[in-house]
Design goal:
CATH topology of the largest domain in chain B: Rossmann fold
CATH architecture of the domain at 4-10 and 77-219 in chain A: 2-Layer Sandwich
Largest sheet of chain B: 7 strands, mixed
Low-confidence stretches of chain B: 23-30
Helix content of chain A: 25-40%
Oligomer: heterodimer
CATH architecture of the largest domain in chain B: 3-Layer(aba) Sandwich
Number of helices of chain A: 14
Radius of gyration of chain B: 18 Å
Number of strands of chain A: 20
Distance between the termini of chain A: 86 Å
Number of domains of chain B: 2
Strand content of chain B: 15-25%
CATH class of the largest domain in chain B: Alpha Beta
Largest interface: A-B, 61 and 69 residues
Structural class of chain A: alpha+beta
Number of strands of chain B: 9
Number of helices of chain B: 10
Mean pLDDT of chain B: 84
CATH topology of the domain at 4-10 and 77-219 in chain A: Alpha-Beta Plaits
CATH superfamily of the largest domain in chain B: P-loop containing nucleotide triphosphate hydrolases
CATH superfamily of the domain at 4-10 and 77-219 in chain A: Reverse transcriptase/Diguanylate cyclase domain
Chain lengths: 489, 228
């Protein structure tokens, strides 16, 4: 016989909104749907209910009953994220899942090898615990059909395995069948409160009195009325999003929310045994503009501190023109990479720490002043660029380095303007803010030029000179101006 | 396995895992934890090479004395061993076009404008502990900038270094780094332009280096105290 499990999220819309602030569940909070013509309260927390607030009240009526009541708006984006979490987590426990309704996921247990009640209880408890860490409190019901499993989930605290269908069904209140108001009214007038009492009236008699609707409702209770699931694969989107009620102007509250987002994403990926390879941050500004930044995680990880530090280090140097009204953080997952370090290995021990240090160095010195140099393919002197270091990609083992020739040049950037007296073609006296004196030895001129085909044309004459105090330096002349390029050291 | 291989392996283990006890023999003759530079003058005087987990100061009191030559030799040696090198350029003076491609690809170059910026960069890199060789070059920085560096900065660097096995070399025009375990002074030496055509190895071998190793001095004092 087939077995199905249903995961049910009670007050789904409210839980989706409160997922980022788990501590608020113990406070008096009600949810309204602003998209409705009359935005009444649709869901509420138990403290709010205890203070006399009920579904269907307007916000002002609810506030009149509870001064502490906090009213939040329904968020479809948050619900989508919560549904993604539900399906992604369920997919980690069964390959056959169905997106049955908002806040309801049905799983087929065939082939999972869950024999015996204790194995089923453990399995269900694992799902409840996994979703609990993601701030979703769920109930799980296991039965022989998807409909019965859902009914069991709604009655579960937090898990319920239905073995005796008749006994389980008989005890359920009639309203779990969700009949039309007219039928419910009739049943109330008859004094029928449970499904057991309803079934005692006889199926044929009920069909005669109440019509085909009750037949279809009762068919859902049959242990033989199974149906194939409409299987889905969960979206591979791992994003957290929030629209702030109050605009954010400083980094502190933004980092507070970001930390929660990172925790959520890391937990979501951890449940399905993945790690974060990239993060994509979007800040929606009050002006309507969007600030975006991609973060590549050098050593993919699900470690919250590492991921958060990466964001924090970047945001410390970010200034926006207007306040922040919305935030989205999306993670791109990948499989965890394991790496065992060897005694002779020379790669980075902690690439994430190194990336963070590079970000700090870049903030300190500037992006054009930190990195691995790349010498340009030109004869123009001192032309290079800096790229982000990629030490991980290097092979281990000894490298061949050719023996250098001569002394090394310590450059002046920019070159220091100099006054040079020439005797014929030879510099004889050098005056500058750095090197001064009579020239006692000269080599040159070495003439070079290039880029004559575009506007960056350059031409220069170069000399290596030694001044009377023993300093060896390189000077050059471009046009009529002379410069000291550097000192040999 | 030959004895030489065993000794080499033990030394390697000692460098990687300083806390490990590798045998009773090391209690009597314990070689210092060093990085061999490949420069005979230095390695002999420093009993194996530059100290790991400690500061080394190279003092170049005069221009054209060969401090950049020595610096490039250290960077090239590390690159040949495929080690990562962080070069903190206190006054943005490195001539990268003269470096070998194999050297450049293992180099993290931080182009600073002032000594203060260089020290901040040095602090970040030393705390990172990913880079086995850090060179902080302050030779070209104005003396006024160097005089503003408090001694506490160097002691802080020393404390950071003690927790790992990073080799940190500071190049200065005058003695500044008081907690340096090894101090190398390049004595002034007049050269002519012919030096530009000679091999660097040859020029390095001609450098007049004065080396003092505080570690050996400390060990000797400890031994004398124990004898007394």
């Amino acid at each position: 016989m087939d077995t199905f499990a249903a995961i049910f999220v009670p007050d789904f819309a409210l839980q989706a909104v409160l997922r980022q602030e788990a501590e608020s569940c113990s406070k008096s909070i009600a949810l309204v749907d602003p998209s409705l013509p009359k935005p009444n309260i649709i869901q509420l927390t138990s403290p709010a209910r205890a203070q006399g607030v009920i579904e269907g009240l307007t916000a002002s009526q609810a506030m009149a009953r509870s001064a502490e009541l906090r009213i939040l708006s329904r968020s479809l984006a948050q619900e989508q994220a919560a549904m993604d979490i539900l399906l992604q987590t369920a997919y980690a426990f069964s390959p056959s899942i169905e997106n049955s309704a908002p806040g309801v996921c049905t799983l087929e247990l065939k082939g999972l090898g869950l024999d015996g009640e204790s194995a089923l209880q453990d399995w269900a408890a694992q799902i409840v615990a996994a979703l609990e860490t993601l701030s979703l409190r769920v109930r799980i019901g296991v039965a022989s059909t998807p409909s019965l499993a859902l009914l069991a989930a709604k009655a579960a605290r937090p898990t319920l395995i239905v073995r005796d269908v008749d006994a389980f069904v008989s005890a359920l209140p009639v309203d779990v069948l969700e009949p039309s108001p007219s039928i419910l009214d009739i049943l109330e007038r008859w004094g029928v409160q449970t499904i057991g009492e309803l079934l005692n009236l006889g199926r044929t008699e009920l069909a005669d009195r109440l019509g085909p609707e009750i037949v279809s409702l009762l068919r859902r209770l049959s242990p033989h009325a199974s149906r194939p699931l409409k299987l889905v694969a969960p979206r591979q989107t791992f994003a957290e999003q929030v629209e702030f009620e109050v605009e954010i102007e400083t980094a502190e509250p933004l980092l507070f929310v970001l930390r929660r987002f990172v925790e959520q994403l890391a937990r979501r990926l951890d449940v399905i045994h993945l790690v974060v390879a990239q993060l994509h941050l979007q800040l929606k500004l009050g002006s309507g503009a969007v600030y975006e930044h991609h973060f590549r995680i050098p050593a993919p990880t699900a470690d919250v501190n590492t991921l958060f530090r990466t964001l924090q280090t970047h945001l410390e140097s970010v200034r926006t023109e207007t306040a922040i009204v919305g935030l989205t953080l999306e993670a791109t997952p990948c499989l965890p990479q394991t790496h065992q370090f060897g005694l002779f290995e020379t790669t980075l021990r902690d690439p994430n720490q190194f990336a963070e240090t590079l970000a700090c160095l870049t903030a300190l010195c500037g992006s054009d002043r930190v990195g691995t140099p790349v010498v340009a393919s030109t004869h123009r002197p001192d032309v290079f660029s800096l790229r982000s270091p990629q030490f991980d990609a290097q092979a281990s083992g000894a490298a061949h380095v050719d023996a250098a020739i001569g002394l090394a040049l310590r450059r002046f950037r920019p070159a220091i303007p100099a006054t040079v007296e020439f005797r014929g073609e030879r510099p004889a006296l050098l005056r500058s803010s750095s090197v001064n004196g009579a020239v006692v030895e000269v080599r040159g001129p070495y003439r070079s030029s290039g880029d004559w085909w575009d506007r960056q044309v350059w031409t220069r004459e170069e000399w290596d000179v030694q001044t009377a105090d023993g300093t060896l330096c390189r000077i050059f002349r471009t046009g009529t101006e002379c410069f000291v390029e550097g000192v040999y050291d | 396995m030959s004895t030489a291989r065993v000794i080499q392996l033990r030394q390697l283990l000692r460098e990687k895992i300083p806390q490990a006890r590798l045998g009773l023999d090391e209690l009597t003759a314990r070689p210092l934890n060093s990085w061999a530079t490949g420069i005979a003058q230095l390695d002999d005087s420093l009993h194996g090479g530059l100290p790991r987990g400690a500061l080394t100061e190279i003092i170049a009191p005069q221009r054209s004395s060969g401090s950049a030559l020595l610096r490039n030799a250290l960077v090239a040696r590390a690159a040949a061993e495929r080690q990562i090198v962080a070069y903190i350029d206190g006054h943005d003076s490195l001539d990268v076009t003269a470096l070998e491609p194999a050297v450049v690809e293992r180099l993290l170059w931080v182009r600073c404008r002032t000594a203060e910026e260089a020290l901040k960069a040095g602090d970040l890199i030393l705390r990172d502990r990913n880079v086995p060789l850090v060179i902080l070059d302050l030779v070209s920085n104005p003396t006024m900038e160097l005089r503003r560096i408090g001694a506490t900065t160097w002691f802080r660097f020393q404390r950071i270094l003690e927790m790992g096995s990073t080799v940190c070399v500071v190049l200065t025009p005058e003695p500044r780094v008081s907690p340096a375990q090894a101090r190398i002074t390049i004595r002034p030496q007049r050269r002519n332009l012919a030096a530009l055509d000679r091999e660097s190895v040859e020029l390095i071998s001609e450098l007049k280096l004065e080396v003092s190793d505080a570690r050996r001095l400390q060990e000797t004092n400890e031994q004398l105290q124990s004898l007394a």
